[in-house]
Amino acid sequence: MSAIDKIYNYFDREPDLKVLFIFNDEFLADELREVQWKEGYRFVDFQGDWFTVKYNLDNAWADDRVVLYFHQESPLQKKSLRENFPLLDVLTANMEYKSQDYTAFMQQYGLPDTDKPMMRFVERNIMALQSERMLRLFAPYYQDRSITTDKLVRGFISSYMGVQRILEWDAILLRVILLGRDAEQQKRTDFFVKLRKCKDTVEALGRKLTDIFGTTIDDNTEEKVADVVKVLKYNAIVQNLAPVAADNYKQWRIDNTLALQQMNRLLELALSQEKTADALLEVMDELGDAVRDDELIRWYGTDANYYFVPPRLCQPIVAGLLKDKMETEPEAVIRRIEDLMLKLNGRGMTAAAMDYCLTVAQYYQKALALGSLTLNTPNEYVMRYQEDYYVLDQLYRQATEQYFKVDPSCGLFPDIQQAKHSLDLHYSKLNNRMNQEWTRCIQETGGMGGVHLSRQQDFYEKRIRPMQKKVAVIVSDALRYEVAQELIGELARSKHVATLKAMLAMLPTETKYGKPALLPHRELKLYGQEDSQNMSVDDHILSTTEKRSEHLQRYKDGAICVPFETVAEYNQQKNREIFKHPLVYIFHDTIDKAGHDGTAKQVTQACREAINELATMIPKILASYNVTEVYVTSDHGFLFNDIDFAEKDKHKIEEETIERSTRYYLTRSDAEATGMVKFPLSEVSGISNGSDVYVAVPQGTNRLAAPSGGYMFTHGGASMQELIIPIIICHQERDDNKQPVGVMVLDRKLSIQASRLRFKLLQTEAVSMDMKERYIRVALYHNDEPVTPVKDILLDKTDPSLDNRKIQVDLTLNRNVDAKVLQLKVFDAADDLNPLIKENVTNNTLIENDFDFE
């Protein structure tokens, strides 16, 4: 019978009973406040107004059955209280609530009377145990006879925390620690008020904290757990390190292996979810400031193998890497950053800064591995650009994109700014040198004729006209080769097949020349005034989508041109009508539109948007509209440097021109010009009437002083980034015959330290048109049972670099294991019987059998 039922029973047994007095049972009082009382019953929580209560009992409440609660002991049980209890006459005329005898309670619920600790607990807490909340909480354990004193204690504490289930000690201790935050002041107060009402729970919680941290709750402080947090923070950081004499905190070091393991379990539990991880860092910042991160760095150094690295400790380590090793030892920076990212747990503004640092280090790693930039033929440059030169452009763009995700309030931001400044200059100089060598090689080998790539002006004739099935062509303005390479990685995740090839754009690498040249034509002509030129296609200027459609239909009956935005509405009916046509040209302008007047942030965002837009559209076209192939190409690439170009750095044009821009000018003069390379227009384009016109472009990546402006993002010249443009060919794969990527363990000797195993997996192949992604499950096993959480990992990396396909894995024991050798098993998620990997792991964590793992 619950306490509520017992209260009703008092009144049912005694019809003349008007007031039932209840004394000094806060747990029961909390429950009574939430009861929806039957009609005619009234609960009153006495707050000291004797006169009002007595008056209401005689008047307003005269017809009610009143349950009257007092926050004091009963004057009938303690005579010294009677003199100051004005309602003593009412009490003696009515009844006082009495809890059930504890022995009867134990008999009723089958609790063993041989269990002395349980008997004492029940005796001291009989009233709370009879509350409806506690009866409901413990009912399953009474029924299956699994109740223990430990469960009773944990149940009480869990209930004080407002949880309607019995928490494990790990969860309880973590919640107590996190209650120390300033934001939890009210919850903390409420919890400790309730906790103090039960001596057993106070003592049990204190023992648990002391066993682990050597200290416990300080009830004389507002925060309660500051000493615990201090010990937790210190040991979480330095447990891997031998103490040094200078360490002023070493008296807080936990030497007991079992205590350290339990602390690590709390740490891993907190870090397993974003909400609790953020809360842990918050409480460490607020209550653990006695453990100064700068002092730890001073004593142990930035290269120390810290076990846990909170952001404030991480920042000076990363700052040191940026200043001392980034440009000269990028591989060491990558290893250290990857290790720190695992220990930081990948959250917060510091994580964003480290993402940036990692990409910058990968850039310098690639730059240092380039070798000589002087090659013998233009084709060698084209091959190198397709193999690895493009990666520098890609990493620079990605690093710039990540830079703008770093919060300026992050402590690392000044160092990040300096690193970015150095990167901007390094990339600018390297890119300039690379393209100086490229243009030199072209000049020395007889011009663009030595570049064995298909030409932009031949795209329709050689690629599209021979197709007898339904085809879509997406012309993406300024989609340079490296962006297309990243797009291929995204497309590889689908069941469709996509291949990337290179094509040589016309000079000048401008939209008004390159885009119309991708359409069918008999003749391209230079057309315009003396200071501004255009290009006609079969004697028409194709300046609008409608004009391009009219022109296209002259070569392919029923063919049309549409803006990307129309198809991207994904109106099924409208798109079905569009793709009934045998050939559809789709014009996409995300990058170029943002680039010319945009900031560096807007340029990188536009590249990301373009990749996402195209990666969404291409599979939809293939899957939904019976299109056989989708081609994606570009009118030109672009140069991108997030630096200021001073007037003195802009190359002055010193001869007459018929058109000029920041990366080229057109002239009728064939005279040499300092710092410039000239090509006959008819040799570097499909323009038929340009025999007396020359395209002059800067050597390298220099910009020209021109009224058109646009220096950070620009095109028109002859750099590899501008000239080498992509052709992506996509078609639908009817059957998914791709093999899943493989996986292997990189570490040779696997061992568990302080209950944790850290190691690296390698995704052995990149996700590609031949290999598909794979889900794996990873855990440590003993006797074929997992003894760590089972981690699900998606192997979906498309990067061709092995270094970028490494995966850090962190496994922590979650139960008592006394075996010296465990097994690491890696399964395909679809096959839990046959492990892909099975490796022995040495257990160097000493664990005693009687340690309390529940």
From TrEMBL:
Coiled coil: none annotated. Gene3D superfamilies: Alkaline Phosphatase, subunit A. SUPFAM superfamilies: Alkaline phosphatase-like (SSF53649). InterPro entries: Alkaline_phosphatase_core_sf, PglZ. Transmembrane segments: none annotated. This is BREX-1 system phosphatase PglZ type A. The gene is pglZ.
